[in-house]
Amino acid sequence: MSDTRKFLRRAAGLFLALALLLPLAGPGTVLEASAVTKAEIDALKGDANDLASQRKDIQNQLKAIQADKNAAINKKELIERQIQVIRQEINNINQQIAMYDQLIAEKTEELRQAEADEAAQFDLFCRRMRQMEEQGEVSYWAILFSSSSFSELLDNYMMIEEIIQYDNKVMEDLEALQAQVTVDRAALEEAQAEQEEAKQKQVAVQQELKEQENEVDKLIGEISAREDQLEEMEAELKKAANDLDAEIKRKEKEYADQIKNVVSESGFLWPLPAGQNTLTSFYGNREDPFTHKSKNHTGIDVSAPKGTPIYAAKSGVVTTSKLGSGSSWAYGEHVVLSHSDGTSTLYAHMSARNVTQGQTVKQGAVIGYVGTTGRSTGNHLHFEVRVHGDRRDPLSYFKDKTLYFSGKGGKIKVQ
Fold first, then answer.
1. Which pLDDT band holds residue 133 (cuts at 50, 70, 90)?
2. Residue 231 φ then ψ, to 5°
3. Between 381 and 409, where is the model more confident?
4. According to a count of CB atoms within 10 Å of the terminal CB, is the N or C end of the chain lower?
C-alpha cells in the first residue's frame, strides 16, 4: 500500500510538471526575414546623394556662364544634363517609396504577430497566476521534507526545479515579447516617417524638373531669335552626324552576331503616329520652299507634340541609347537601331528614351518620345537612315506616304 501511494505521488508530480511545461511551446512564431531591408533603402539613398552632387556640379557650371548672353546653347546643354539627373533622382525616389511600401507592410505584419504572441503569453501568465492562487501557498521545503525516501526526495526536487524554471521562463518570455512589440512598433513608425519624407522630396524634385523644363523653353526662344546661333546649331548637328558614322560602324561590329539574328522587314514603318506627317526640314542640300535658303541637313525633321511616341522603323538591335555629350550632344536624347539588312536608323532630340543599348526591338515598338533636347529649338523627331554606314534621304523609303512641309510661309503638300 505504501509503494502504491509513492507511485501515485510521483505520477501526480510528474503530471503537474508536464501540464505546466506543455504550454511553453505556445506562441512565438518566427517570421521569415524581410524581403526588403533597411540597408537596401540606404543604398538607394546613397545613390540619391551621388545624383545630388552631380546636379550641384552642373549648377556651378551654369552659374559660371549665367551672365554670358551668347551662351544660350551651352546653358541649354547644361540644363538638359541637369534634367537628366533630376529624372534619375525622381526614379530613385520612386524606388525608395515602393520599397518603403513593402517594408511598411512587412513591419505591420511583424508588429501584428508580436502583439498576438504577447497577448498569448500574457494569457499563459494569467493562467499560471490563477493556478498558484487555487493551490494556495505551498512550501517547497515542506514538499521536500515530506519525502519518504532519498529517491522520492530527488524526484520532488527535480519537479520543484522544473516548476520554478517554467515560472521564470513564462515571465522572461513575456518581457521579451513586450520588448519585441516596442521594437517592431518603433521600426514601423520610423519606416512610415521616412517614406513621408521621401514623398515630400519627390514633390520638391518634380517641381524643380518643371522649372528646369521652363528654363529650357526660354532658352529656345533666345536661340530661335538669333540666326547666327541657328546656323551654329546646324553646323554642330552635321559634325555630330559625321562623328556618329564612325560610332555606328564600331557598334555594329560589336553587336554583329546579335544583329544578324534579327530578321529585318523589307520596308520601313513611318516612325510616328499616322497624323504626324509634317516636315520642318528636308534631307541634304535642299532649298526651303518659303525662304529659298539652302541648308545641308543630315536627316529629316518631323514636327510633333512633346511626348508623342516614336516607333522603331524596322526590327533591329539598339546600338546606341543615350543623352549625347561633346559633339553628340547635338542629337540630345537619341537612339540608333541597326538592322540585319545593312541599314541603320537614328531617332534624335527625344524627351525620353524607352530602350537600352543592346536591346532587341521589333518593328513598331515604342523606343522613345518626341522632345527638343540637344541642338533643337522645337519639339520634333530628327530621323536619319544609313545604308552600310552611308546616309540616305529617308523620304525615298516613304514614297507612298502623304507628307507636308511647314515653314515661315505656311504649310504645303510635298508628296
1. low
2. -65, -35
3. 381
4. N
The half-sphere exposure of 178 on its side-chain side, counting CA atoms within 13 A, is 9
- Evaluate whether 344 touches 332 at the Cβ level (below 8 Å): no
Q: pTM for the complete prediction?
A: 0.62
Nearest C-alpha neighbor of 21 from the set 120, 162, 132, 125: 162
Listed in sequence order, the residues at least 6 apart from 301 whose beta carbon sits closer than 8 Å to its beta carbon are: 279, 280, 281, 380, 381, 382, 383
* Contact (Cβ atoms closer than 8 angstroms) between residue 356 and residue 336: no
Q: How far apart are the C-alpha atoms of 287 and 409, rounded to whole Å? A: 13
Element (H, E) at 139: none
**Residue range(s) occupied by CATH 2.70.70.10 in the chain:** 236-413
Question: By three-state DSSP, how is residue 50 classified?
Answer: helix
Distance between CA atoms of residues 350 and 332, nearest Å: 7
Q: What is the pLDDT of residues 274-295, one digit of tens each?
A: 999 999 888 987 554 434 455 6
> Cell 543615350 maps to which residue?
322
Q: How would you label 56-76 residue by residue, b for 16+ Cβ within 10 Å and e otherwise?
A: eebeeebeeeeeeeebbbbbb
pLDDT for 320: 94
Which residue, among 124, 103, 113, 107, has the nearest Cα to 29 in the 3D structure?
113
% of the chain at pLDDT higher than 90: 27
Q: Which fold has domain 236-413?
A: Glucose Permease (Domain IIA) (2.70.70)
- Do residues 383 and 372 make contact, with C-beta atoms less than 8 angstroms apart? no
135-162 burial, b at 16+ Cβ within 10 Å, e below that, comes to: eeeeeeeebeeebeeeebeebbeebbeb
Interior/surface letters 365-390, b for 16+ CB within 10 angstroms, e for the rest: bebbbbbbbbbbbebbbbbbbbeeee
Whether the CB-CB separation of 90 and 202 falls below 8 Å is answered with yes
Task: Give the model's pLDDT for residue 384.
Answer: 95
CA distances from residue 361 to 266, 354, 386, 389 in whole angstroms, order as listed = 16, 11, 18, 20
